């Protein structure tokens, strides 16, 4: 086997596929998963060869596997006859193992048996299953799939992480794919798909000589996994993809990565179901859900089977407009949409309706009549109202609705200026000049990050992951005035010839800001500045989070980190110029500051450690953290901006204080 580099791709010269197919797959993978942290691979099941290895360096790295691990826990339960006597009922949450657990779908799935629970990836079912599984049986199943050791298909592949033993809490979380205790490479998950496709056995990935092939002895259990993956494609978590039309089968997974607030998405699959020819794995590193891996993975599988590339119809964005995904956090299954008078349209056909309630039925939006079922519902006009249960939101502009990842996905389409009327009021409750500064910073961020979620078909989300946006709920007359006074103004970097780079902001810096390079590893121009003027104290000292502390027992901290409580609990190894911890050591284990913050936040609450400008010391069996500020500390400090206005600064001078490397200019088209 010879390896032929193609940019960041790796096209494998193999006997089982044509050069034309390999090239088409490589080109399509680059278009579907362009980020250097994304990856995909396609395996020819007849030969064991890789037909595609997209971004091989990522394919060889280990990450938490998310819900894909439910396949292994299901196999362990079937193999050891440890199924629940009565299937648990999923109502969206349940207390299991002494803790409240949440399902990924808020209303829950009801009562399910194993096959259907796997097809719908029900968290509650698998949390409960993990509570009755034996730890060794679960680990044995993971090892049987070949997880925890390199496949040998590519040089430098990591072995991953597979613990020697599992506590009760570990079993519960690993069984549901909600744990960093098990980490696998994309190549290992591709091998997993191949073994399931092959009814328990498959050729070694890449046909590495002398390497033992994974083999599952319980063929009857494997058939259950196959059937669940087929149901996932036809009426489960993959229903919104084209996998069912390929007669394929698959499993998705979503897991947080080390920076905490982002997620990465997985997809493994094979097709055709009866006589599988190809298996695929797709990995979207900095996505927000499994669909960002499932859609590309399905298209690559279709192309490998001889299908044509789909003709994508991109959104024809009017100049200065955005598409914002809204209300995703509520995971809507039923939504009422009303316009300000314009007629709704269903898959492009205008209806005699200005309002309708849509429910998901077999992957479509059902408006209550047989002739009113559509893939996309569109509400035109300059204003819409959306109702989801007790939540009502009003939006400027138009709204689209479709089905994605088993929920109704809602997209608000509106001008950047109207979007800012909602954003600025959500992000800052300041005075006129501070609001103007916020408007320019938020406009710059929105335009620079336009298409941030492009793979999923929209520009930005309505969460703090992008910018907080709640439609017209936070509009105020003083915000409208600030947006209008700064219309079209943005912060440029080295000049208008350079691409527009995002600008950042946070609540309070605690006395000094940090660069985007040190906190995010970003390359955009930014400075670390002292948040003071002359000899006065910090500008943001009025913030309630200017100085804070948090105490936690050694045992709780170790449990949150997933580390044995041995040795010193916490020390900062390296900080940036703004005093934010870049590297720490906890109980003898080195971690990045972001990884430490994310693990503590997930287990103990994200407001416990309010920033990484902190120190920690042990006092009487407890760890006391002391810190300053709230947020990441990059860019404009909002409390500081408000104080600068109180001292007579206009918005231009406020921005020069926090962004000395930037200049104010007009936005691009």
UniProtKB/TrEMBL annotation:
Residue stretches making up the Penicillin-binding protein transpeptidase domain: 40-288
Domain Sporulation stage II protein D amidase enhancer LytB N-terminal, first and last residues per copy: 406-491
Signal peptide interval: none
InterPro entries referenced in this protein's UniProt entry, alphabetically: Beta-lactam/transpept, Beta-lactam/transpept-like, PCN-bd_Tpept, SpoIID/LytB, SpoIID/LytB_N
Name the UniProt record assigns to this protein: SpoIID/LytB domain-containing protein
Organism: Archangium lansingense
């Amino acid at each position: 086997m010879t390896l032929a580099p193609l940019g960041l791709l790796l096209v494998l010269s193999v006997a089982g596929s044509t050069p034309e197919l390999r090239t088409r797959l490589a080109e399509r993978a680059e278009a579907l998963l362009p980020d250097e942290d994304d990856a995909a691979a396609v395996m020819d099941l007849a030969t064991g060869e890789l037909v595609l290895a997209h971004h091989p360096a990522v394919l060889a790295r280990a990450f938490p596997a998310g819900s894909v691990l439910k396949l292994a826990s299901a196999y362990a339960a079937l193999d050891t006859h440890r199924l629940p006597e009565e299937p648990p009922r999923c109502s969206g949450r349940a207390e299991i193992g002494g803790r409240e657990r949440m399902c990924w779908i808020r209303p829950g799935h009801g009562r399910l048996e194993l096959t259907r629970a796997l097809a719908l990836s029900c968290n509650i079912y698998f949390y409960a299953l993990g509570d009755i599984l034996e730890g060794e049986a679960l680990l044995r199943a993971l090892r049987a799939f070949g997880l925890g050791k390199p496949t040998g298909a590519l040089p430098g592949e990591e072995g991953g992480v597979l613990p020697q033993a599992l506590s009760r809490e570990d079993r519960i979380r690993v069984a549901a794919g909600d744990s960093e205790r098990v980490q696998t490479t994309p190549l290992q998950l591709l091998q997993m798909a191949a073994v399931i496709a092959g009814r328990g056995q498959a050729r070694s990935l890449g046909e590495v000589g002398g390497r033992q092939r994974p083999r599952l002895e319980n063929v009857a259990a494997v058939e259950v996994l196959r059937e669940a993956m087929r149901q996932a494609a036809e009426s489960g978590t993959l229903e919104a993809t084209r996998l069912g039309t390929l007669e394929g089968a698959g499993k998705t997974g979503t897991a947080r990565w080390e920076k905490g607030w982002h997620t990465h998405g997985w997809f493994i699959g094979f097709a055709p179901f009866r006589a599988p020819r190809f298996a695929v794995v797709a990995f979207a590193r900095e996505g927000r859900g499994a669909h960002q891996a499932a859609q590309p993975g399905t298209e690559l599988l279709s192309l490998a089977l001889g299908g044509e590339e789909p003709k994508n119809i991109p959104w024809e964005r009017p100049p200065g407009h955005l598409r914002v995904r809204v209300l995703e956090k509520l995971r809507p299954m039923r939504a009422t949409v009303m316009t300000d008078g314009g007629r709704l349209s269903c898959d492009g056909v205008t209806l005699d309706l200005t309002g309708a309630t849509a429910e998901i039925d077999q992957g479509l939006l059902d408006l209550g009549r047989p002739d009113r079922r559509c893939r996309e519902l569109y509400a035109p006009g300059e204003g819409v109202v959306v109702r989801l249960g007790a939540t009502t939101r009003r939006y400027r502009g138009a709204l689209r609705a479709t089905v994605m990842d088993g929920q109704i996905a809602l997209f608000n389409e509106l001008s950047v200026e109207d979007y800012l009327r909602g954003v600025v009021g959500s992000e800052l409750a300041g005075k006129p000049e501070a609001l103007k500064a916020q408007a320019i910073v938020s406009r710059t961020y929105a335009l620079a990050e336009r298409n941030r979620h492009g793979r999923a078909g929209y520009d930005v989300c309505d969460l703090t992951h992008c910018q907080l946006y709640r439609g017209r709920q936070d509009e105020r007359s003083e915000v409208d005035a600030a947006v209008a006074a700064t219309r079209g103004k943005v912060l440029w970097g080295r000049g208008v010839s350079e691409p527009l780079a995002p600008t950042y902001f946070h609540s309070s810096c605690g006395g000094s800001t940090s660069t985007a390079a040190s906190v995010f590893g970003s390359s955009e121009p930014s400075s670390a500045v002292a948040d003071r003027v002359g000899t006065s104290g910090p500008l943001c000292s009025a913030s309630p989070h200017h100085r804070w502390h948090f105490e936690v027992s050694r045992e709780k901290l170790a449990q949150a980190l997933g580390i044995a409580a041995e040795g010193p609990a916490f020390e900062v190894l390296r900080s940036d110029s703004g005093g934010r911890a870049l590297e720490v050591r906890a109980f003898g284990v080195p971690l990045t500051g972001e990884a430490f913050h994310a693990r503590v936040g997930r287990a103990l609450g994200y407001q416990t450690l309010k920033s990484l400008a902190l120190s920690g010391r042990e006092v009487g069996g407890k760890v006391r953290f002391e810190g300053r500020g709230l947020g990441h500390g990059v860019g404009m400090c909002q409390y500081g901006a408000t104080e600068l206005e109180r001292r007579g600064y206009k918005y231009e001078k406020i921005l020069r204080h926090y962004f000395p490397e930037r200049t104010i200019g007009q936005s691009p088209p």
